[in-house]
Amino acid sequence: MPKKVDHEARRREISEALWRIASDRGLEGASLRDIAAEAGISLGRLQHYFRTKDEMLAFALRRIESLAQQRIRERIEALDEEPTPRIVLRACLMGMLPLDEQSRTGFLVGVAHFHRAVHDPSLRTGARDGIPELRDFFADQLRQAAERGEVRPGRDLGGEAMVLISLADGLSTYILLDVLTPEKAVQLLDMHLANLFDGEGRAVPCRS
């Protein structure tokens, strides 16, 4: 009887080979043949699962984002305290920073996808589709915080949400370039959150 192949598991294995290359030497010069060799399969076998490098990158990025979301959920669920909007936002932003090997690799894969999307309109839509959803989620958390008196009323919550996303992206870049240590990046993130969550001058402590 022929051996049954778990195609989704094989696609994950190939994407993990891509992650290793991204982490070790970057993806820009890596070919499909390089990725197949890293995965321990033939080029023809790899192309059975992914026809192009862009298709593989998109799958790898979705997988990384899924794992990151799972880690964030687990971090929030493990808290002994109420997951206030500030705690939820901080957990999300911390999950976006390359603070360990797994999140560093995830950010590098995202950078590789971004670089290709800038020059390819067919990829650009997919690369930017998730941003409005994340912005709206962050803005909703800020709205709840404003209702609790933790964020000063009258702020542009959608604009503040985009600032948070941009802050995480910028800090991540500077971590990878060794401009900032991970510890300093987290300190700057907390400084911004302290300024944002001042309510009527009442800063709310947030433990690491």
**Biggest sheet features:** none
Give the N-to-C terminal Cα separation. 54 Å
CATH C-level label: Mainly Alpha
Helical residues, percent: over 70%
Poorly predicted spans: 200-208
Number of helices: 9
CATH topology: Tetracycline Repressor, domain 2
Q: Based on the coordinates given, report the CATH architecture.
A: Orthogonal Bundle
Number of domains: 1
**What oligomerization state is this entry in?**
single chain
What letter string, H or E per element, gives the SSE order? HHHHHHHHH
Instruction: Give the mean pLDDT.
Output: 86
| Rg calc | 20 Å
Principal-axes shape call:
elongated
Which secondary-structure class do the elements indicate?
mainly alpha
Total strand segments: 0
Estimated share of beta-strand residues? under 5%
CATH superfamily: Tetracycline Repressor, domain 2
Keywords:
208 residues; mainly alpha; Tetracycline Repressor, domain 2; 9 helices; disordered C terminus
How would you explain this protein's 3D organization?
The protein is 72% helix and 0% strand. By secondary structure, it is mainly α. It has one domain (7-196): Tetracycline Repressor, domain 2 (Orthogonal Bundle), CATH 1.10.357.10. The longest helix has 27 residues, at 121-147.
In short:
The chain has helices at residues 7-24, 32-39, 43-49, 53-77, 85-96, 101-118, 121-147, 157-176, 182-196. The chain is mostly helical and 208 residues long. Mean pLDDT is 86; it is low at 200-208.
